[in-house]
Amino acid sequence: MPLIPIKIPPGFYRNATQYQAKNRWYNGNLIRFSEGRLRPIGGWQRLAPTQIVKRGAVRGLTITNGGTGYANSATGTLTATGGGGSSFSGTYEVSSGAISKVTIVGTGADYTSVPTIVITPDSGSAGSGAVITPTIHSGADPIRGLHSWRLSNGTRYLAVGSTQNLHIWDGSQSVGANAPLFDATPLSVPGGGVNFKDQDDFLISGLGYGSLEYGGDRNLDGSGGTAAGGDVYGTPRYPSVDPDVTDPDAFRDNFASVWSLDNFGNDLIGVHSGEGTLWHWSIGSGGTVHKTFTASSSSGLLITSTAHGLSNNDVVQVSTLGKLPTGLAVLTDYHVINKTTDNFKLSTSSGGGAISFTDAGSGTHRWDKKTNGAVAFDNATQTVSPPVPLANAPTSNVAVVVTPERHILVLGADGDHRLIKWAHQEGLTGTANWNPSLTNTAGDITLQTKGRIVGGFKTRYGVLIFTTSDVWRTNYLGPPYVYGVERLTEGGGPVGMKSVAGSADFVAWMSRGRFWSYTGGYIKELSSDCADFVFQDINMDVEGLICAGHNADFGEITWFYPKEGDSYNTRYITYSYREQHWVTGELERSAWESSDALGYPVAAGVDGYLYRHEMDPDTTATPIPRGETVTAPADVNALSGMNNRVVARGVSTDKHPNVATENHLCFAETGAIEIGEGNQMMTVRQIITDTDAGSNGLRMQCVTADTPDETGVTQGPFTLENDGYTDCRFTGRQAFLKIESPFDQEWRFGEVRFDAAVSGKR
After folding, report:
1. Is 641 within a domain?
2. Are strands 182-183 and 116-121 parallel, antiparallel or unpaired?
3. Which of 507, 526, 411, 520 lies closest to 468 in space, CA to CA?
4. Three-state helix/strand/coil letters over 332-348
5. 352 occurs within a structural domain
6. Do 160 and 167 meet the contact criterion of CB atoms below 8 Å apart?
7. Parts of the chain with a pLDDT under 70
């Protein structure tokens, strides 16, 4: 019989029905096309063993029992005991002898369990029986910003920003169980009284009609009704900053709280969009210097660290470049006890007993002191150095960019969402750095835009400034004007700053309903074969969660987005700007950092963990030679664990924490394959494939049908033979092919040929 070649071009076509995607790839997951051939994406591995979690702030109060006997119109204070945290405060009001309203003044932080609320009257009868039940933030803290850079001495750093945290990985060792991830969360916002750890993401519920109770209650505190500030019937409801806290007029839109991070030389600067301070973290020129130690299990559970400088009851954390002594763990707070000049012991609690070591471990062990809740690891003296507000800088900012001319640009400065300000060139401190004068290069520009600034992106041709309605570019003019701006396009603003990704030469972003790119100094709309599918699938109520990532090695931009009904990113669409095609799939990621500084991409799972991507096939097992029989694991979850290599099948360790199990099969399937115009039947007896080494174990499935609407008949799956000839037998007017890999392996798949005969029309 004649061999019929099935030539399928790279990329998916999702803008029509599966039948209309004739002789095209239609759907798939965890795959890419390279040099026109189908292959799986690289695997991933956890970068560090510890989850980024919410800081345990008190986020809500419920009056479980209002009590009796409280003086009418009296007020009082609320405090909290227990729960492991501190600094919560609140007030209450009384009506008809019972507590009727509670207000959170300070949320506190670091509560690991629900505290007990203590009720203290300011005056009048104390009353009795009132019970106020708090709720605390817990679970994974969404990571909303990643930034990597190298010091002048080559030391690598990765900043990890979430809604309530800022962590830094010092890049001194590879991924694995002992990779250190240090807490560098700012202590408080300027002005005092507000704990940075209390920052929150935007609300993902309560959008639109029907989100609140009938009749409205704008105050969201039980006072309700139009007379008390409630809204009338038909008024749209929007989420407040927090319905359980205070300000009913402080309404937010659907922009998530994200970090804008950049480096000024060796230093890190950043803005948390939900808080607005311009933070500065000085690492110095010498890089990280940790104190080292050795451990002895035979001499009284002793830590030896020459001239350590610690005091009893100091809190430290430990890490290692090898294996820690059994009994110690990374990212765990230990209290110093029984210290001498060169030695000390460790306890899990203040004044507790010494920890028992059963061995000395191996490799170089390190300790780092905690002060005011943060680990200091920037110098040998272990002096605490969390980020601090940059002196005299604008406040209430949206984002920050360091220009190639070494100006610090803050966007949406001073609460004005159209204002750009920049400091004097090379200046990090001093009043004059932000006040324009004849003797400096500081300045500002207000964009003439209908939208609001969401962020900026550095390119070879200037800094792109994105607003909700248009895109601008800064042009360096030099003194006295320093910078000018020009509008590049009206419309095309991104859904959020994290939806922008790329390089100095190519930038791409997602707007509402379209994709855009900037290259060669010009903006153009990207035509996508998958756009209709994505924008019909996406949940735009939480569009601020959408994030993009650049994979320079493969010339790809990937957008992670929440599908309809989801409140976190569950799917992705990838554009290959190098080979001009699109693919889609399922993967949960909330942030992405390219490989420029670290040497490999790093992404944040929605589970609060960090993952190194594009891992090679599992090196712990013997490579699979061509021709060898391979058996898939009986349980696909055997692929799970800290070190996931999921080139064939992603498993549930990097899922959203609210999802019990979530497997992602690696596959690709076609639209209709027909002979001619589909007027005649075909009988296929053999499939001839083009694969390379390690492809044994691939499977192909065919679904045959006579009409597009017919429920097809599944043929197979057929395990592809190593000699390239796979026997089968099926007949149909059209066939839909599916290639899949049931286990962890690298593979490539090229052209397919059918050994087929043409039959009649029926």
Report:
1. yes
2. unpaired
3. 411
4. CCEEEECCCCCEEEEEC
5. yes
6. yes
7. 1, 47-50, 73-74, 123-125, 170-181, 187-198, 200, 202-255, 283-290, 298-301, 321, 331, 371-386, 616-664, 675-679, 693-697, 742-745, 760-762
Whether cis (ω within 30° of 0) applies to the bond prior to 480 is: yes
What does pLDDT average to over the chain?
Answer: 78
- Confirm whether 40 is domain-assigned: no
Domain-terminating residue out of 665, 683, 704: 665
Question: What does the alpha-carbon distance between residue 188 and residue 197 come to, in Å, rounded to a whole number?
Answer: 8
Q: What is the DSSP letter of 398?
A: S
How far apart CA 756 and CA 675 sit, in angstroms, is 10
DSSP annotation of 619 reads: T
CATH number for position 332:
2.40.30.180
Question: HSE of 333 in the Cβ direction (CA atoms, 13 Å)?
Answer: 13
Asked whether the beta carbons of 401 and 463 are under 8 A apart, the reply is yes
Rounded to whole angstroms, the Cα distance separating 497 from 74 reads 47
Output b/e per residue, 212-239; b: 16+ Cβ within 10 A. beeebbbbbbeebeeeebbbeeeeebbb
Domain span including residue 84? 58-136
- As a whole number of Å, the end-to-end CA separation of the chain is 20
Counted residue by residue, the chain has a size of 762
Handedness of CA 533, 535, 539, 544 (dihedral sign): positive
Matching residue, tokens 């090898």: 322
Distance CA 217, CA 238 (A): 11
Q: How far is CA 317 from the centre of its chain?
A: 25
- Judge whether 414 and 393 are in contact, CB under 8 Å: no
The first and second tokens of residue 74, run together, are 């009296």
Residue 421 bridge partners (DSSP): 410, 444
Count of other CB atoms within 10 angstroms of residue 121: 16
The first and second tokens of residue 470, run together, are 């248009």
Domain boundary among 107, 136, 165: 136
DSSP conformational letter for 532? H
Q: What CA–CA distance (Å, rounded) separates 533 from 17?
A: 10
Peptide bond preceding 717: is omega within 30 degrees of 0, i.e. cis?
yes
pLDDT digits (tens, 9 = 90+) for 711-748: 888 888 888 877 778 888 888 888 889 888 766 667 88
**pLDDT tens-digit map of 635-690:** 333 333 333 444 443 443 455 555 554 455 788 999 988 766 666 777 888 888 88
Residue 15 parent element (H or E): none
Write the DSSP string, 108-129: EE--SSPPEEEEEESSS---B-
Six token digits for residue 529: 């074969």
Residue 591, CA distances (Å) to 110, 346, 523, 609, 610 in order: 24, 36, 24, 11, 9
CA distances (Å), 510 to each of 192, 398, 423, 546, 549, in order?
38, 19, 30, 9, 12
Handedness of CA 282, 611, 164, 453 (dihedral sign): positive
**320 belongs to a structural domain:** yes
Total structural domains within the chain? 3
Using a 10 angstrom Cβ sphere, with 0-12 exposed, 13-18 middle and 19 or more buried, the burial of residue 535 is middle
DSSP conformation letters of 346-370: EESSTT-PPPPPS---BS-EEEEEE
| Tokens read off for 118 | 């203590």
